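Batch queue: ligand-bound targets. Current item pairs a single chain with zinc ion. No template structures supplied; prediction is de novo from sequence plus SMILES. Inputs echoed for audit trail.
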Amino acid sequence: MNLILFGPPGAGKGTQSSFLVESEKMFQLSTGDLLRAELKSGSDLSKQLKEIMDAGKLVSDDIINNLIEKKISDPSVKNNIIFDGFPRNLEQAKSLDDMLDKYNQKISAIINLKVDYSVLVKRISGRVSCSICKKPFNEFFDPPVEPNNCSNNKCDSRELIKRSDDNESTVTNRLKTYDDQTLPILDYYRKKGIVKDVDAMKAINEVTGEIKSIISNL
Ligand SMILES: [Zn+2]
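Prediction returned. Tokens below.
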């Protein structure tokens, strides 16, 4: 069984993937992880990758596909993969299907995590964390008891910090890219009848429960 966890940035793809890794013993495939692992490997490709990334260029689809094909054909993980954040566009979706076909596999289901964009913007742009103990808060959903004050008694920090890319305009831009490039993939898979919609506005454990019941019925 191969799955794609699908949804906009902030929908909880990474969180739900790691639960499946634990409970279903699946392999979580994210292109970021693949690239980092390849860079460390010292292979010929890793030298080429380093040059591309040092120059600030985007890694081509060919290289990404090459790394993914290695995993799809790897007996220790094949047919037991959760794709997290891949494919990102229709071209990638089609090449993924071709690659899987080559190794007699397919995507069993697309788990589509549905979330209101207004909530996503607040989830991401509201993220702050304590400058000392790193405790995470959300200015909208989980604010500190006193403003800008870490409520953990063992920590007397008076400073909560925000990542520079967690602001409303960056989030809105990422959602627009998602709408333009990634969302069309969903229609492609809907025509194959393998999209399973999940209401990801629910509590994390409820979402996990829904995903598990979908998997058990595949
Ligand atoms: Zn703190």
